[in-house]
Amino acid sequence: MPEPAPNPNPTPTPTPAPDWRAGLPEDVRSAPTIAGLKAGTAAEAVAVMAPMLLSAERMVGAEKVAIPGKEAKPEEWAAFWNRLGRPEKSDGYEIPKEGLKSLKPDQQAEWIKGLHGRLHELGLSRQQAAGVLRFFDEDQALAAAAEEKRVADEKAAGEAALRKTWGESFDE
Fold this sequence. Notes:
There is one protein chain. The chain is 56% helix and 0% strand. By secondary structure, the protein is mostly helical. The chain is elongated.
């Protein structure tokens, strides 16, 4: 069998387009954001990077708080917590307007004074502290109600046992 004749008009092998990053300075070209960009052409790169640029511009104007590093000093952490809403001093916390129903008024002052010191030490904001106090109060109210029910049930069971033992003589 004869070999086929070569194609008189061979399809030219496409030459790869030059990398669009080639014209960028080396430090820009090697930056992870640019080096990892999935774009075959400069136009594709612009289409991908334009939303990134707009997002970055919005973030530049936003208020930011830097998180202290591992070796940060206590003063740096204090400034950080204060920027997040912690009062400057522990007496800056407030009791929720509805008060704490689970504590008697004479118990509240001393307990809350100690708690405020701990909340401040932990960096809680006023809003977080109020939420913790509300949670504590609700939890204590539920626990007190459960205890009252347990005592009432125990009392009723004891009375029932005595009635059974003493019969009609119980009411005398």
